[in-house]
Amino acid sequence: MSRKKRSSHTTARGHPNSAVSFLLSTDAYDILCVSGYTRLADNPEIQMAAGRIADLMGSMTIHLMQNTEDGDVRIRNGLSRKLDINPSGNLTRSAFISTIVRTLLIDGDGNCVVYPRFSRSGDLIEDLEILPPSMISFVPDGRSYYIRYGDQTFRPDEVLHFAINQDPETPWLGHGYRVTLKDVAHNLKQAAATKRGFMESKWKPSIVVKVDGLTDEFSSKEGRKKLLNSYLETSEAGEPWMIPAEMFDVKEIKPLTLNDLAINDSVTIDKRTVAGIIGVPPFVVGVGSYNRDEWNNFVDSKLMPLSKRIEQELTLKLLYSPDLYFRFNSRALHAYDMKDMASIGQELYVRGIMTGNEVRDWIGMTPLPGLDELVILENYIPRGMIADQAKLNGGENSE
Questions:
Q1: With the C-alpha atoms ordered 77, 83, 85, 88, is the resulting torsion angle positive or negative?
Q2: How confident is the model at residue 14 (pLDDT cuts 50, 70, 90)?
Q3: Which is deepest, 250, 335, 345, 361, by most CB within 10 Å?
Q4: Can you tell me the distance from the alpha carbon of 333 to that of 330, in angstroms, rounded to the nearest whole number?
Q5: For residues 227 and 218, is the Cβ–Cβ distance under 8 A?
Q6: What is the mean pLDDT of residues 117-142?
């Protein structure tokens, strides 16, 4: 039997069917399979979604408001500065609120506890300390509950307890997204591991060379390298190969790719699921493109309800006066076009609803002298002088 005929019964290691063989091998399991528990904090998509919400919540200023007969007005005093500038000894307001929100969404599984430290007189807030969620447990006590922190026990009215996704059976206890996102987070981690495994794997040759396995050179690593150097390596680009016809059979193949496994489609679906569960637009986690209407809806439907929970807990536990309350300023979070803002400001200015300096502050400009009065109509006169117009007095008084 000739050597060429015998070679037809041998299969090279780089045969296209070897991709399937690799997927069924032990090496493929070690590279592509992910085992063990996947924390939400370890998932990039969940980090992006929760981090965006936390950063936006931290960027909103906290106003101390007071109810009056003419409407609610903003109060600026030591209490408002404490909450809006340095609520905690080591954290600014932005870092403080961001930490609370991140704890609610990820680490605290829907709960965050803050311990307020008051002065000896009990009238001044000295510090608001965020308690580590790993050291906190909630113990039911009849129709109420108490909070255990290490070897300390607190009643609900002694601490600030922020909670989301309450269960009807335990409305005082929050529930996070750990159970809901468990499978999705595992799928995303598995997809990342599969992609990394394919990128790092050696089982994706662009050319397969079928060699007669009975040759002496093919039996050892050094021999195979010698064959490659002798027949396949060239000194110049584009130089043709000259190989023995009875020994080699060269084929070009397309190895298995991520598209063949539908990795991209499954990852897109999982990312959209993460965005939907946490409540952020899909483009926040890298799916789709930015949409201003979708962003504004996200601010109104997700950030505003979350801010109300924090506002009401702060008001309930920190303020004694019944006509005071805390409020987040969410206007800066909406996606406004500068042209739209200027047009609205101009309309409010000429109708005597906003002063010129209020409009300038709205669009981010500093105040100017003489723009603190309300004007109205096309004459741009002070509102208090409207009745002094000549056309309203028969035109006799030209002055």
A1: positive
A2: very low
A3: 345
A4: 6
A5: yes
A6: 88
Which has more pLDDT, 232 or 43? Answer: 43
Please name the residue ranges forming H helices in the chain: 3-7, 18-23, 26-32, 44-59, 78-84, 93-102, 178-200, 221-227, 263-278, 292-298, 304-318, 338-350, 356-362
Retrieve residue 157's tokens: 């009215």
pTM: 0.70
Residue of 90, 92, 89 lying closest to 62 (CA atoms): 92
Backbone angles phi, psi at 155, to 5 degrees: -85, 160
Angle at 395 between CA 392 and CA 399, to 5 degrees: 95
CB 326 within 8 A of CB 309: no
Percent composition of the chain: helix, strand, coil (DSSP 3-state, to 5): 45, 15, 35
> Where does the pLDDT of residue 5 fall: very low under 50, low under 70, confident under 90, or very high at 90 and above?
very low
Place of tokens 């009990």: 122
Distance, first Cα to last Cα, the chain: 124
In DSSP terms, 148 is beta-bridged to 137, 153
Does the structure show a pLDDT above 90 at 298?
yes
User: pLDDT category, 395, cuts 50, 70, 90?
Assistant: low
Residues 6 or more apart whose Cβ sits within 8 Å of residue 122: none
Structure tokens at 199: 């990128």
Calpha distance 116→23 (Å, rounded)? 57
How many whole angstroms separate alpha carbon 356 and alpha carbon 372? 6
The contacts of residue 294 (CB under 8 Å, 6+ apart) are 281, 283
365, exposed or middle or buried, with CB in 10 Å at 0-12, 13-18, 19+? exposed
1: pLDDT strictly greater than 60: no
295 CB-near residues (< 8 Å, 6+ apart)? 281, 334, 335
**Cα(49)–Cα(287) distance, rounded to whole angstroms?**
12
Residue 17 has pLDDT above 60, yes or no: no
Q: Which helix (H) or strand (E) holds 152?
A: strand 152-154
Task: Answer with the residue of higher pLDDT: 39 or 129.
Answer: 129
Of 246, 268, 242, 261, the closest CA to residue 204 belongs to 261
